[in-house]
Design brief:
The protein has nine helices and nine strands. It has 241 residues and is of the alpha/beta class. The strands form two sheets. The protein has a six-stranded parallel β-sheet, with helices on both faces. A three-stranded antiparallel β-sheet has the order 5-4-6. It binds nicotinamide-adenine-dinucleotide (NAD).
């Protein structure tokens, strides 16, 4: 559990920062009611016919689109979720000109819903979908209002614009994330186990000196000189100005 002294130390670093970057994951949205993957009550602790890593892979999507869509609609879509204090604070810091980008592994669109403009979505978004044959775009509503495998009017299968296991990350998004990290003077990492690569490796591009980690439990990767606040990110972020 974090201490008040750590909150003060983090607050001072944030106060001084002029170009912060936030790097986050599923833990940022648990306080909005969206389960993460690796917590005790996360998706990976529940039992399915196939393990979630397998269902969320490119091969599985191609072979068993019916099963994929069933799991995806049941477990990955939270269209009514609302941003929490962490999303809102990041949007506020961007408006104030202190934060230059949010780099997220999340696919829920909650940073944008909170008002953040520069959001680099490493793993895509459930709000966008496209036909694997003709490329036509479909909104999230098309997925929600259909049953079974969503098909395009051309007959092709529609795929959510989320990066599945075995798929590469978008090169332009990666490049933009690296640039932001290289120029940042403070990196805040939050709500991520730092277990998913290549996303987790990106933090090595950070060019500044100060890193704050806000997470329930220590993430997989350690770095010296990091200020670690162990706790809920929404609760902690609401303590900062
Ligand atoms: P993860 O599940 O591996 O790790 C989440 C981390 O956040 C854990 O260390 C957990 O202890 C911590 N955490 C949970 N609630 C927290 C809170 N309120 N405050 C602070 N920390 C909290 O998630 P990951 O590292 O993002 O990697 C999993 C992958 O799953 C990502 O690629 C992501 O795309 C995807 N995912 C996204 C969503 C979403 O969009 N909301 C949800 C589930 C999974």
């Amino acid at each position: 559990m974090y201490t008040e002294k750590e909150i003060l130390q983090a607050g001072e670093l944030i106060e001084k920062a002029r170009r912060m970057v936030f790097f986050g994951g599923a833990g940022v949205s648990t306080e909005s009611g969206i389960p993460d993957f690796r917590s005790q009550d996360g998706l990976y602790s529940q039992k399915y016919k196939y393990p979630p890593e397998q269902i969320l892979s490119h091969t599985f999507f191609e072979r068993y689109p019916e099963e994929f869509y069933k799991f995806y609609r049941d477990k990955m879509l939270f269209p009514n979720a609302e941003p929490n204090a962490a999303h809102r604070k990041l949007a506020q810091w961007e408006r104030e000109g202190k934060l230059s980008a949010v780099i997220t592994q999340n696919i829920d669109g909650l940073h944008q819903k909170a008002g953040s403009k520069r959001v680099l979505e490493l793993h895509g978004s459930v709000w966008r979908n496209h036909c694997t044959r003709c490329g036509k775009s479909y909104p999230l509503e098309a997925v929600l209002e259909s049953t079974g495998v969503l098909r395009c009017e051309c007959g092709g299968i529609v795929k959510p614009d989320v990066v599945l296991y075995e798929e590469p990350l978008d090169g332009a998004v990666l490049e933009a994330a690296v640039k932001e990290l290289e120029r940042a003077d403070l990196l805040i990492i939050g709500g991520t186990s730092l277990n998913v690569y290549p996303a987790a490796g990106l933090i090595d591009y950070f060019g500044g000196n100060n890193i704050i980690v806000v997470n329930k439990g220590e993430p997989a990767r350690r770095r010296n000189g990091v200020l670690f606040l162990d706790g809920k990110i929404g609760e902690i972020f609401s303590k900062f100005d």
